[in-house]
Amino acid sequence: MDIKSLLKLINKYKWVLILVPIIAVTITYFLVQNLPKQYSSEVQISTGLLDPSKKVISNENTDFFQVSQQFNQIMEKFKMKKIMNILAYNLMIHDLENPKKSFRKYSEKLDSLNAQNRAELIQIFKEKLATKSILTLSDNNGKYKLYNLVGSMGYGEETLRKQIEINHADNSDLITLEYVSENPELSAYVVNTLAADFISNYSSEISFNQNNSIVLLDSLLKQKEATMNEKNNALAAFKKIRGF
Description:
Strand order of the largest sheet: 1-3-2
Strand content: 5-15%
Distance between the termini: 124 Å
């Protein structure tokens, strides 16, 4: 086909060539407009497992299988029931204390409560947060069905666990937390609060274990010291009897 014939063909169907992209772009625009808005936030936590400056594991004898297990254990701890419940309490307290700035619109269950009921709920959730209590179905047996209320706002344990992505890239010292929601402030709050609460709980756990180890070691040393003193006293008494 020569150039003249090609130009004639293009000129003949020029409106088709112009309209098809316009129509496609217009349809795509309206389809995208109807999609729910999603906002993603992420935070990274340094574990110190592969950081030479932390000296948790030296480069000379790094057992990568062991390190991988440690990373997996830490990642599993993020999704522990207690950690998810602490996050849920924080979210509920925030929304109850800030009705005009709540991350999500109140559910029917929560919206049906009056101001006094909500004030009582705030106190209950603060007490559960302070004691780091586990939220179970038995919490529905009181004046307020706490388990159902938390679930109605989308802050239930299983819901949060499914929506929070926890990843670790190979050869990286960082664990990444990601959360996607319809509210950018909610997404940021979830990952920041989860990271802060986890670090606080994990640090307390390590400190508790270290203190227990020190107490145990001290007890063993005292036992050995008492045994040694007993043997020395027996030896001294024996020498005295023998006249040494």
